[in-house]
Design goal:
Blueprint: H1 3-25, E1 30-31, H2 33-52, H3 56-65, H4 67-77, E2 78-79, H5 83-107, H6 112-134, H7 138-148, H8 151-173, H9 180-261, H10 265-280, H11 290-305, E3 309-314, H12 323-342, E4 351-359, E5 362-370, E6 377-378, E7 381-382, H13 389-405, E8 409-415, E9 418-426
Parallel strand pairs: 3-4
Antiparallel strand pairs: 1-2, 4-5, 5-9, 6-7, 8-9
Helix pairs in contact: 1-2, 1-3, 1-5, 1-6, 2-4, 4-5, 5-6, 5-8, 5-9, 8-9, 9-10, 9-11, 9-12, 11-12, 12-13
Length: about 425
């Protein structure tokens, strides 16, 4: 029984594992595991049967065409990912494997079995790279790199990889010079140049495009946050004026007594009704921060339309955190909570609980809201189900930036359809919020 078909089977299995993992962990796909088992167990069993026949020619053809059913069935099992994304994953893995294998085979002379084992080692190495990218602290950075790199740049890089893989294959298997030493040297130089060229161009394109996009969007987002902060500041000032009116309401009673004593009943009634209306406008929230009060009042209006209650407990240290930072923290988390509540049935009880505590120079904020289905958590952050991942990524990026600014932590959990986000911040001394 030939070993080559078995190695090809293992390589295709590694492709499948890597593509499934990248789709779920980096692109936020939801996997139908039962469908995955039903589709792929028979498919790989059939592939193994073909490989075990020992017919290398047939195994080569089957293995080359195997990516077609694999990519189609993966698309059916992983939602809402697109087919072109799955196909791009395969092409990227395939071309990088060819480049690495060609580079190694040009440097290390070996027989057929050694070459096959070397190719298998490259596949295992690539799977290890995928694991490192999909788990731990790197996951979020890799996700942002994919999300914020323009589509045109991604297409250029993928085309470049395919061309480099084709050229390296031609040079390795169809040498232009027959003399062995010179031929091997030329192969090595050419393939190394291809690899270096591809890496340099890829890094430059991604770095330039991504940084330009990040700077542009971040500037717009900061302008929006500042405008939002100014807006809530004005609402807060209006709330202060209302407080002053209520404080002076007792003094207005003197005017009422005067009007009634003079028999001006209609005027006294109008003054009384006006005072009662203003009294009913008592703010729902007393957080200790005018900005946060105004923001939650504004979000509560939206919550009323979807039969949701926002409850606040505790106090916010408004003099130790910048107003714009408070808008980012409470605005982003409340928006996400409201979006989750919108997906729930109208008749279901929906309460968003916000708790804030200051102790030992730290602020602890925790927000809990119900969700329709369990939320996938990756690297401590929720995975988005939005079609527009860039905007979602920007909100998380801004929140992470604030957390880092105050040397804090952010932890997300989802238990029994209750999603909780916990934030802790180290507070600077009063009136000395970090710049």
């Amino acid at each position: 029984m030939a070993i080559y078909p078995l190695i090809m089977f293992v390589e295709l299995l590694l492709y499948f594992i890597a593509m499934t993992m990248v789709s779920i962990r980096l692109f936020g796909a939801r996997c139908h595991w039962r469908r995955l088992v039903v589709f792929f167990v028979p498919l790989f069993a059939a592939l193994l049967a073909v490989e075990l026949t020992g017919n290398t020619a047939v195994a080569n053809v089957v293995s080359f065409l195997f990516f077609v059913p694999v990519s189609i069935l993966l698309k059916l099992c992983l939602l809402p990912i697109r087919y072109r994304t799955v196909l791009s994953e395969y092409l990227t893995l395939y071309t990088v494997n060819i480049l690495l294998s060609s580079a190694l085979l040009s440097v290390i002379p070996t027989n057929d079995i050694g070459g096959w084992l070397m190719e298998l080692a490259v596949h295992i190495f690539m799977l290890s790279i995928c694991v490192l990218a999909c788990y731990g602290q790197r996951q979020r950075k890799v996700q942002m790199l994919f999300e914020w790199t323009p589509k045109s740049t991604k297409r250029i890089l993928l085309t470049k990889l395919v061309c480099d893989a084709f050229l390296s294959t031609v040079v390795l298997h169809y040498p232009l010079v027959t003399e062995p030493v010179l031929s091997n040297a030329l192969k090595l130089i050419f393939i190394l140049l291809l690899v270096m060229d591809g890496l340099i161009i890829s890094v430059l394109l991604v770095y330039t495009a991504t940084n330009k996009h990040i700077r542009s969007v971040a500037e717009q987002y900061e302008e929006q946050i500042q405008a939002q902060s100014d807006y809530y500041q004005k609402l807060s000032e209006s709330d202060v004026e209302l407080r002053r009116f209520r404080h002076d309401y007792r003094n207005l009673s003197i005017g009422l007594e005067k009007l009634l004593s003079e028999g001006k009943t209609e005027e006294a009634l109008r003054m009384l009704r006006h005072g009662q209306q203003e009294q009913r406008r008592r703010p729902r929230y007393e957080s200790g921060s005018g900005i946060v009060n105004a923001l939650m009042e504004d979000k509560a209006l939206r919550a009323d339309t979807i039969h949701t209650t926002i409850t606040f407990e505790g106090a916010v240290p408004s003099d130790r955190i910048e107003a714009a930072d408070l808008c980012v923290i409470f605005g982003n988390t409340l928006d996400n909570a409201l979006e989750a509540c919108e997906k729930l049935p109208p008749e279901e009880e929906k309460t968003i609980l916000v708790q804030c505590l200051c102790r030992s120079g730290m602020m602890f904020m925790e927000m809990t809201n119900p969700v329709k289905e369990p939320v996938a958590i990756g690297s401590g952050l929720p995975q988005t189900t939005k079609s527009n991942k860039k905007d979602h990524g920007l909100g998380l990026y801004s929140l992470e930036k604030i957390i880092k600014k105050y040397d804090g932590t952010l932890i997300c959990t989802c238990v029994d359809r209750q999603f909780t986000i916990s934030i802790s911040l180290y507070l600077p001394p009063s009136s000395a919020a970090p710049a």
